[in-house]
Amino acid sequence: MxxxxxxxxxxxTPIREMIAFQLHRAGYETLEAGDCGQARQLxxxxxxDLALIDWMLPDMSGLELTRMLxxxxxxxxxxxxxxxxxxxxxxxxxxxxxxxxxxxxKPFSARELIARIQAVLRRSQNAADDVMExxxxxxxxxxxxxxxxxxxxxxxxxxxxxxxxxxTHPERVYSRTRxxxxxxxxxxxxxxxxxxVHVRRLRKALSxxxxxxxxxxxxxxxxxxxxNSA
Length: 230
What we know:
The protein is α/β, with parallel strands linked by helices. Helix content is 42%, strand content 20%. It is built from eight helices and eleven strands. The chain has helices at 13-25, 36-45, 62-71, 89-97, 110-128, 157-168, 176-184, 193-207; strands spanning 5-9, 29-33, 50-54, 79-84, 102-105, 131-134, 137-140, 145-148, 151-152, 215-218, 222-225. The strands form three sheets. It has a five-stranded parallel sheet, with helices on both faces. Strands 6-7-8-9 form a four-stranded antiparallel sheet, covered by helices on one side. Strands 10-11 form a two-stranded antiparallel sheet. Strand 1 (5-9), helix 1 (13-25) and strand 2 form a beta-alpha-beta unit. Helix 6 (157-168) crosses helix 7 and helix 6 (157-168) packs across helix 8 (193-207). The longest helix has 19 residues, at 110-128. The radius of gyration is 20 Å and the shape is elongated.
């Protein structure tokens, strides 16, 4: 199983390095940022599974960063744990209402932090296992199965990931470059025409069930998933 990747956004270097060390010992991969600007640069190239964000940062508060991420379609599903010395109830409520999935008050033990991370990641994974339905299509992420009217649609792993991503973001147009980043990964270097090949394969599989119309080409822009007519 691939290790979960954790983004640590903390301006105090000793604390950030201590957290990274403990997370490495627990089997996680880490990314480190000292402020919100660095965090956003990393997020443009990497796809962490969870972000640990300190409340007090030099260029923007961690709460503002969390709110910004949760308003952005690209990062709205990113799990976030706020780290802060502000432990009163009002601050905790503000953090959670701002989009954080959990709130850890400093000082904290490595054991507590890792337990909180594991709990949030489990909840995120459970959410990712939801069944999605659109039109005649039904995608069971946990069971890795696509059906139309109870009939199985045979898809390769890449076509499945592509369909899942598009169904998760309906009515939104994605360029080939963006699909490569989101479905294949930002650090996987393949040609843009690869997207067209897999879109054709996906459409061919769906055409047997008259569902290929949901994968729509937007000339000059890219592709979108829509149950409405193009």
